[in-house]
Design goal:
By secondary structure, chain A is of the alpha/beta class. Chain A contains nine helices and ten strands. Helix content of chain A is 39%, strand content 25%.
């Protein structure tokens, strides 16, 4: 069946969006639409321009016989700032305050649209770090981890606090929770992580970083490489942070349970996002 | 900025795919692209045709001042069959067999691409049931629930087995596990589900249905309405099923631990998917 350009553009856009980071050969499109490769190239130029203008991402073209085109989802600085500003506003709502100074974030993490926006920001930041797998710990971090993984087109592995029969044989470690100083256990299914994998750790909340530090310890058991740590909210004013390098979108600067006040500011993500934009520009020259 | 048709098609496709089930007014597009509504209508006709031809879904147009266009993700029968056939093949692999006749599904549930395909099938089936929220139980069902919810554009609520401080006040119920007959507890954050919500329950695995039955009991505590139950894998040969109406993609017909054999067949989803296709066709006449 012959396709007109307009139909090709719609279907190619859908295909590229569904397969981020995935190399699609021009022949694939040429055959699917029964069109000349030169027409496909022109289509891709239009898509690339629109994607870049609209902040959807970019297309990277790889020349040669094994070449093709790859959609890289990217979030522009302005869009990321807007998402984070929105998040800050929502998170600062004093109704979120729970006993013990904890925050209720379940509604935010339960909204796929917000979660996908957050996921795209992290995927943008880590898209050039050769990530093989996104790791998180049950339960709260799971939706964020899947959102990031979808945009990076990699699988998710979930570390658990308990041992379930459905996980098969597992590796378990003990770690010290940073804030409560209690000893806890973490378990990961042996089959779920290949040796030498490049891992991005994603979680919803980081206080002292004990849980994330636990995941780093588990990575060592699998000889896997830590390639990055992304958290939605970090809590400031921690005496001793167990984790050094991480990216946060929102920073909790002050929680006053008595006065029912939550103060938040932007996290450190901007530093990293700006770096990427500069790198990209340099790469294009 | 004026947009050419080709750029509009790319950007509109992206916008519609990102906002399933969401009514977008023609004025929104007309203003964004500084184009006449008649041109936007023509664009939408092209997109609708391509979406339908390619099995991406359909566009529903609502006339009038409050009208607009809505993208409904749909999976065609053939595509659904292919996905399920693939799943059956993967699940029947004897390496999945765990002690006690359990199956290792973690890798399947860890792959966002597979999870999204499954999510789209369930969203297709339930897209006309006015779902307000997707419910699942921690941990394994979470990725599936988010995938379905993304395509339905509704939030997810997660029932837990334990009580966490970050959930705020909760409602908890006791239920009897169908297969082990043990009494277990289920907990749901009070804030997370509004009274009268229409709920779709999604889970990865159903044996006797005790866990799902527990979720149904929790729905009653919230005066919420059960609108459907979707499971990835159901286990056949259960003496007494606690749940009546559900949709499954894969049916486990026989697990022989000694012979290391897993037998699977297609679940009952086809019955429902065919019904929808027929309804749709009738609706168009």
């Amino acid at each position: 069946m012959k396709f007109r350009r307009s139909s090709r553009l719609v279907d190619m856009t859908n295909h590229l969006l569904l397969h981020p980071q995935h190399l699609v050969s021009l022949s694939y499109f040429a055959e699917k639409y029964d069109s000349a490769k030169s027409s496909i190239s022109e289509d891709l130029t239009i898509i690339k321009q629109t994607f870049e203008q609209q902040g959807i991402g970019t297309l990277v073209t790889i020349a040669g016989a094994a070449g093709g085109v790859k959609f890289i989802p990217l979030v522009g600085l302005d869009e990321a700032k807007e998402v984070v500003r929105e998040l800050c506003g929502v998170i600062a709502n004093p109704d979120r305050l729970l006993p013990g100074g904890y925050l209720y974030l379940t509604d935010i993490l339960g909204d796929p649209r917000i979660v996908n926006k957050i996921g795209k920001i992290f995927a943008s930041i880590y898209s050039n770090r050769d990530i093989d797998v996104v790791m998180t710990v049950a339960t709260k971090g799971i939706p964020l981890a899947y959102a990031v993984a979808s945009f990076l087109d990699v699988p998710v592995v979930i570390v658990r606090h308990d041992n379930r029969v459905t996980e098969g044989s597992t590796v378990s470690i003990n770690y010290v929770s940073g804030s409560t100083k209690r000893i806890q256990t973490m378990v990961l299914s042996k089959r779920s992580l290949k040796e030498g994998s490049n891992v991005l750790i994603i979680d919803d909340f980081m206080k002292a970083g004990g849980t994330i530090n636990g995941m780093i310890n588990i990575l060592e058991e699998f000889n896997a490489n830590l390639k990055g740590i992304g958290v939605l909210v970090e809590s400031e004013g921690i005496e001793e942070r167990l984790v050094d390098e991480y990216i946060s979108l929102v920073k909790l600067t002050d929680v006053d349970v008595k006065e029912k006040q939550i103060r938040v500011s932007e996290g450190n993500y901007l530093t990293y996002l700006s770096k990427i934009e500069i790198q990209d520009e340099m790469g294009e020259e």
